[in-house]
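User: Can you help me understand a structure? I only have the sequence.
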Amino acid sequence: MSKDFIPFKNIGLCFSGGGYRATFFSLGVVSYYDKIQYQGKPLLDSVEAMSTVSGGTLFGVAFSKASQQKDFDFKTFFNEFYDNFKPGNDKLLETAIAKLGNDQVWKDNPHKKRSLINSFALTYADMDVYKGSFDLFLNEEKTANLKYVCFNSTEFSFGLAFRFQNCGLFANKPLSNKHLNELEGQLQLGDITASSSCFPLGFEPLVFPDDYIKNQSSPAYKNVKSLERFADGVGIMDGGIADNQGIGSMMNISIARKRDDELKKELDLIVVNDVGSFKMNPWQPEPKKKDESSSIKSVISKVLDYFKIKPLYIIILVLGVVLMVLNSMEIFKGKAWPALYIIGGIFTGIGLLLSIFGLVAGMTKSSIIGSLKSLFKKNVPAPLVDDVLSFRKLRVGLIQRMLTERISSTVIMVNDIFLKQIRRLNYKLLYSDPSLRHKIITSTVYELNGEKTAYSKSFSFNKNISPAPSTLLTSIGLIASEMPTTLWWDEKDIQKDRMDALIACGQFTSCYKLMDYIIKLKKNKRIELSEEETVAIDTLYKDLENDWKKFNENPMFHVESLKG
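Assistant: Let's start by predicting it. Here is the structure, written out as tokens:
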């Protein structure tokens, strides 16, 4: 047996981003690790490190906080967390939007900029499962199990991961400093949760340290703000931008263990729990129209044509005045007619108003056009002037189509292509190291949904595991994997009981992947297991096998037992 590897001894769990899909798949994973026993104790007791991103952080912060309590009981935590978010009780989005529009909330929190993500941060801070500060994880008297936590976000000054962690550098190398460390313990868990989960386009970044520290007269805050890199604030956003699986942070934790003078060994097992899908909705171009309508220049010209004094306005004014003058001269049948005074007054009023409007609008138009021309000359480089001006001749429909295609492709690029490419690179980083091959499990939400992937012709699973996934189990897996990336439950989610499906999916997928891992571990000729370890692993496999049979008969059996 290699001295640096003891099966299931020290485990690190990574939880990916993905909104509620990630949150409750994560809850399912941990609930199963609490259920399954290894060498007489829950496998969860061997989990000593956690790295979370976005939706995974929603679960990770709450679980990490609860697990630090001396009287921690997982079933109690499960039900408390479950009750906060189950449909009917879940008021996260509703409360955050209400806070955004409540003036008193921002008077009570003057340090925070009024924004949607800060509304979410304040909402998290009001929830018992997220109350408290990061100081909880900096106490040297840690619990015997969960020692290392890292809640991942991304900073917008250097484009690197910004890590809220109790091991290694807080933040990252370019931003880390002794003054920043003085603030670390004061950071609220609600703000950290919001930082990790504010995905692009849906939210704006938080500003560090401004949005995080209420007492901005404190020496610690002033010291950080005095630093050039923090003077204007650092934008903090979704951890998924840099690493949506939290793999890099977990590898750093594992390497740090090996450098530790007492531990001198890496983690024995890293489990990446990933709800990021290989699927994406293909980009659809806008349909080409035969008639792209009028050009921009002609449309603008038509609009601007209204903003001037027209001959018609003068004619109406003159007509009204002449009509009243002639009527006063009693030209019409020798007397003045009241009706003609009224008609003449109306014409005069309309003509006068239109003329004044045309005069003012014309002057305003000239001023605005002059300002725009000046702005254009100052900001458009000379070599590009002709190209930009050529757009005036393009038709409005064509411009609309070009803008729509640019926006739609950019959204897909940010929310799908970039994340998938970064995901591939991080997995390559993890799996390219031969020394880690026997220390990795990748557990995905779509693993057992019965669907083929983009890389296979049919649904595939380990044929050495019996029974094969049942139709009932794969249907629950499909319901879970089809959950969109949201922080709320819609009517369809409630109708399909998506929350319980996600938890169950995390449970039976964990069971399946642990079996798959053990099969491969026992076949690995580079690993020598002692007789004691072999017996313990065989016993674990039998227990997993029994649970796997139960999951195939009733995928919800463990969810029901926890809720009961």
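Now, to help you interpret it: The mean pLDDT is 86. The radius of gyration is 33 Å. Let me know which part you'd like to focus on.
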